Amino acid sequence: MYSLLCRTKLILCVLPAGLISLCFPVKAQHEKLGREIIFETGNAVSAMPFTGATQLFSSYHSFTTAGVRFAWNKKGKHAWEQSVQVGYLYHRFVQHSVPVFSEIIYRHNTGKAWQLRGHLGLGYLHSVPAADRFELNGNGEYEQIKNIGRAQGMVKISFSGAYRITTDTSLTANYGVLIQTPFVKSYVPLLPYNTLQLGVAKSF
Questions:
Q1: What per-residue confidence (pLDDT) applies to 15?
Q2: pLDDT level of residue 105 (50, 70, 90 thresholds)
Q3: Which of 77, 161, 175, 183 could cross-link with 109 by S-S, CB 3.0 to 4.6 Å?
Q4: What share of the chain is helix, strand, coil (3-state, %, to 5)?
Q5: Domain assignment of residue 137, given as a range
Q6: Is the peptide bond before 16 cis (omega within 30 degrees of 0)?
Q7: Does residue 76 share a domain with residue 139?
Q8: Which of 148, 127, 116 has its CA nearest to residue 46?
């Protein structure tokens, strides 16, 4: 009988704690870590940084990125975050590019649903020519150059806004400048793109 009473007390003590752990820690952990999946797509136009932004509305070159974002430090309305992303950029008639990069992000919560961010990203960019290239061989004939692309670096500076539509989903808008380097060492070492993307971020 004594053993049965002890077991009953143990169950009564453990059960509420178990229910609490099932109901709350997942949300609390997500709020603590701030983990999100991000998907954004839009336009990228080669033009002077910032001053060439108007060209985003007259020419289109697809630019899509996807990745994850983590919050490392949060205090009140402010937070520091980091993202890891991979993308695809098509510069028509010039190149296909695959950027792989990480960003340091400052976030400011302007209200219950709105967030503003400043991003600074560094990474690797692999570019492949979008047109066939040829060169003269020893017989005076043109041969197609087989090219698997070039390894290059990239810097990305951007600003974004997010609007929360549910407890774990936000719509995003991101404007920035992506700099590819070296594009052509002899006369175009830096190739800047103005980028504009819309997307969605979802907590996990």
A1: 37
A2: very high
A3: 77
A4: 20, 60, 25
A5: 35-203
A6: no
A7: yes
A8: 127
pLDDT at 51: 93
* Same domain? 112 vs 29: no
Cite the DSSP H helix spans in the chain: 2-23, 25-33
pTM over 0.90: no
Question: Looking at the structure, do residues 84 and 9 belong to the same domain, yes or no?
Answer: no
pLDDT in tens, 141-171: 666 667 778 899 999 999 999 999 999 999 9
| Statement to judge: residues 54 and 131 lie in one domain | yes
Residues 90 and 9 in one domain: no
Residue bearing tokens 């175009």: 188
**pLDDT tops 70 at residue 33:** no
The total domain count for the chain is 2
- Residue 195 to residues 65, 78, 83, 156, 166, Cα–Cα distance (Å): 11, 25, 17, 10, 27
* Assigned token pair, 83: 């993202």
CB 81 within 8 Å of CB 70:
yes
Report the CATH number at residue 107: 2.40.160.20
Q: How many DSSP H helices and E strands does the chain contain?
A: 2, 10
